[in-house]
Design a protein that fits this description.
There is one protein chain. With 111 residues, the chain is mostly helical. Helix content is 75%, strand content 0%. It is elongated and about 60 Å long.
Length: 111
């Protein structure tokens, strides 16, 4: 799940330059996005803690299962919505060289 979140964040950051070219406004957007991200993470952690101390008497394993299930459900709903409805089509920034593939081209550009 953590890898999915990181990959989603990388794709989301690719859309930031479309919002503005002003550095001050970009700093406002990114700080707002990070604030929202940490707020949601804190709310999720609080929810799991509250449920684990509830009268349900969950064991550590049951709490971990509950947390994983809630995380997967929330991830499917919100990632699915954002990937299907919020991301717009983007034109290619570079043309793939003949004989190259997407898996190795990025690494070759770094060398």
């Amino acid at each position: 799940r953590y890898f999915d979140k990181i990959m989603h964040q990388v794709c989301t950051m690719a859309y930031l330059p479309d919002l503005t070219h002003d550095f001050i406004e970009m700093a406002h957007y990114t700080s707002r996005f990070m604030m929202n991200q940490y707020l949601v993470q804190g709310a999720y952690t609080t929810l799991v803690i509250v449920i684990s101390f509830s009268p349900l008497a969950l064991s550590n394993l049951d709490t971990a299962r509950l947390a994983a299930g809630v995380s997967a459900l929330i991830g499917v709903i919100f990632f699915g919505y954002s990937w299907i409805f919020l991301f717009r089509k983007r034109p290619r920034l570079r043309v793939l060289a003949p004989g190259a593939n997407l898996y190795t081209t990025g690494f070759k550009q770094l060398l």
